[in-house]
Structure formats: structure tokens, C-alpha cells
Write a structure and sequence with these properties.
5-stranded antiparallel β-sheet; 2 domains; globular; alpha+beta
Length: about 300
């Protein structure tokens, strides 16, 4: 006899959790939908703004009903974000982390093809990072929006609708960064109050080190600083960018990331040189967020104007 996971001679009783298992992030609305590993920690998902379960990164053929099939449960309740995580292995252990609204410095979400990453930058602590299937980015959106409401009074899509005269941003402005242009257009369609403050296209950079060998390596294998777009609605700063700001060679880049920071909180800034000419890095609160940008560019001026005000 062959089981659902292809093992001969064993038969597993099917479960509702196993039948629903796949690579996708799923919303949780009832206690029965909470993965059994986390059920003793989360018994009333209906009282939370958002509850999401993140599956293990395994194929269905390698899963069976006896396994704990979910790596994480994310719960936004009140002004607290709770992350429940499966301990390594199949020990049945659970790790718990809670982040409160007053600790939030930035929220970052994006994907590189099917590799999605959700990150919360936290005051004086390491970031909270969860990987997920990038096809579920729309499912993650309510969690991102819910966290943004912890530092603003009104949902972003409802603030100032129709009050901003949007600056057109096209391929003529960002060259090959088609995805960034598309992401900007999606953003202003969903959040009309977002105003474009600065942008730069990807840039071929030159190392500060004038050594002949280093310059030869960069000539054969060039380094590119990736493009970015800076927007604001007066309450938040939104940066659209690639996951990796620095990319070697000519390989295509497929990632898109949104980083959002509140403008209602004062945080220390540093502007530091990089290893490349005419590129500086803006660091927010001891590396809670890093933005390498061309020196003197509209992107740099926008970031400094907004974050220092």
C-alpha cells in the first residue's frame, strides 16, 4: 500500500490540515484552522485583526498527516505582532516572539520570483524575518497594512484620495527598471495620496580603490547599484527597490521590495561613504534600514528631507 507521501507499507489517517496543505500562505479565521502545533498558544483567531499561517518549505509528496506542516503563525492583535515558529526538527517545540507597535521602525515586504520575505525592523532588536512563497504576496498584504495602522490613524488607501497630482514615471526615467515603474504605478493606483519625491535608475559604479587589479575585476565583472523610487503621503515614507541593492554582472534582476517607515517617529540617521565613487548609504537607526543612493541624487535628497524633518 502506498501512502500520500509515497512510502510503501504505511497508511496515514488523512487530516483536514494535511488535505489543505500546499505552498501558499493561508489566512486563519477559526480555531480549527490554527495548525495543531500552535493551537495551545492561539485559541481565538477571530479576535485578531490578521492571522496567517506559513507552510513548511517542502513539497506535498514529502509531507504526511503526522507532520507539523506549518513553520510559522503570525498574529496581529491590538498593537502586538506575535510570531509563533516551529522549533527545528520535529520535536513539537514552539518559539514565541512578540513585537509591540512602539518598537516598530520599518516594515519590508517583497519577493524575488517565488522567494517572498516579510521583515519587521525593531527598535534595538534583531529584525523579525519570515520567508514565504512569493505567490502569496497578496495574502501578506493585510498584515503589512495592519502594521502600518499602528503608526497612522487612517488606512493609507483612504488618506487624501485624489489630492495629489501624480508625476508620471516611465521607462525614460528609470531605463531598464520596468518592474520598479510597474510597482510605482500599482502603488499610486491603490494609494492615491502617495507622492513621488525622487527616483534613480540602476547605475554602473566605480570602486573607490584605485588599485589596477580591483578596477580590472570591475571592468570584467561590473557592479551595479540598483534603482529605487521614494514616495510619501506625509505620514509614511515608502521606498520601492530591489532586494539586493548591489548586483554584479549583467544577470537580470527579478525582485521587488517595498520598505515603509513612519515619519511620525524621530530616528537617528547616518550618511556614510560606500566602497564606490559617488554613492553614499543612508542608515536609519543603526542599520534598521539601509539605502545606498547616488550622492546628490533626487533619491538621496528626498530621503534626507523626509527623514530629517
Amino acid at each position: 500500500m502506498t501512502t500520500d507521501n509515497g512510502v510503501k507499507g504505511q497508511q496515514f489517517e488523512r487530516t483536514e490540515e494535511f488535505d489543505a496543505f500546499g505552498p501558499w500562505v493561508l489566512p486563519v479565521r477559526t480555531r480549527d484552522e490554527v495548525p495543531r502545533l500552535f493551537r495551545s498558544f492561539e485559541q481565538d483567531p477571530g479576535s485578531a485583526q490578521v492571522v496567517l499561517k506559513i507552510p513548511r518549505r517542502i513539497s506535498r509528496r514529502d509531507a504526511n498527516p503526522r507532520m507539523d506542516l506549518y513553520d510559522h503563525l503570525l498574529v496581529l492583535r491590538g498593537d502586538e505582532l506575535t510570531l509563533l515558529s516551529r522549533a527545528p526538527g520535529d520535536t513539537g517545540g514552539v518559539r514565541r516572539r512578540v513585537v509591540t507597535g512602539d518598537q516598530l521602525l520599518a516594515v519590508e515586504d517583497g519577493a524575488e520570483l517565488l522567494d517572498g520575505r516579510f521583515s519587521v525592523r525593531v527598535l534595538d532588536e534583531k529584525p523579525l524575518v519570515v520567508r514565504y512563497n512569493g505567490a502569496s504576496r497578496d495574502t501578506m498584504a493585510p498584515l503589512v497594512d495592519g502594521l502600518r495602522l499602528l503608526w497612522r490613524d487612517t488606512p493609507p488607501s483612504k488618506v487624501g484620495s485624489g489630492t495629489v497630482e501624480h508625476v508620471p514615471l516611465g521607462l525614460r526615467d528609470l531605463g531598464p527598471d520596468v518592474a520598479l515603474v510597474g510597482e510605482y504605478r500599482e502603488l499610486i493606483a491603490a494609494e492615491p495620496a502617495m507622492d513621488l519625491r525622487g527616483a534613480h535608475a540602476r547605475l554602473l559604479v566605480t570602486p573607490r580603490d584605485a588599485g589596477s587589479m580591483n578596477r580590472l575585476v570591475h571592468k570584467v565583472w561590473p557592479m551595479w547599484l540598483q534603482g529605487a523610487v521614494v514616495c510619501t503621503d506625509g505620514v509614511e515614507l515608502m521606498v520601492l527597490h530591489r532586494r539586493s541593492w548591489w548586483v554584479r554582472g549583467s544577470r537580470p534582476v527579478h525582485s521587488i521590495v517595498r520598505t515603509v517607515l513612519p515619519l511620525t517617529r524621530t530616528v537617528p540617521l547616518e550618511v556614510v561613504p560606500t566602497g564606490y565613487e559617488d554613492v553614499e548609504e543612508i542608515r536609519v537607526h543603526h542599520d534598521a534600514a539601509r539605502f545606498p543612493v547616488p550622492t546628490g541624487s533626487p533619491t538621496q535628497r528626498a530621503l534626507l528631507d523626509l527623514l530629517e524633518s
